[in-house]
Design goal:
With about 140 residues, this protein is mainly alpha-helical. About 65% of the residues lie in helices and about 0% in strands. The radius of gyration is 18 Å and the shape is elongated.
Length: about 140
């Protein structure tokens, strides 16, 4: 058995990211990573902590990471819409920059959810550390 030396929150987070990469990119390395984290999910989490609804928690993490992936993809393609990419503050770019700003805030908020879910998982399993973000984009803004 290969043991992945990560806390439970990170295993589930990385598993769902690897699943998305496997579906969207599909390299051999993606498959290897996915299967390693999937095995750790079953052997190191579901087996050792059967009292928690791990499939539901994994589905929630997958949904959060999928949303982040889609928003980041939109953000990357949104910069192509800039009428004058050299002058970001150009008045012609105002509408596109507004969309980019809103998308960035959504990504920050989803990342905050992701950190909170990882912290909850680590609290439930008493593994790893609680991730505290300060002055970080994933930190909840007012």
């Amino acid at each position: 058995m290969i043991k992945i030396n990560r806390d439970c929150g990170d295993i589930i987070d990385r598993l769902t990211i690897a699943e998305l990469k496997t579906k969207r990119i599909g390299t051999e390395e993606n498959f290897k990573e996915f299967h390693a984290f999937e095995k750790a999910f079953v052997e190191e989490i579901k087996t050792q902590y059967p009292q928690f609804p791990w499939d539901s928690i994994k589905t929630l993490m997958l949904s959060i990471n999928d949303s982040i992936w889609q928003l980041e993809s939109g953000l990357k393609s949104g910069k192509e819409e800039l009428k004058n990419p050299i002058y970001l503050l150009d008045e012609d770019n105002k509408e596109v920059l507004s969309k980019i700003g809103l998308t960035t805030i959504l990504i920050r908020n989803f990342n905050n959810l992701r950190v909170q879910l990882k912290n909850l998982i680590n609290t439930l399993t008493k593994t790893g550390f609680i991730d505290v973000k300060k002055n970080h984009l994933s930190e909840k803004g007012d």
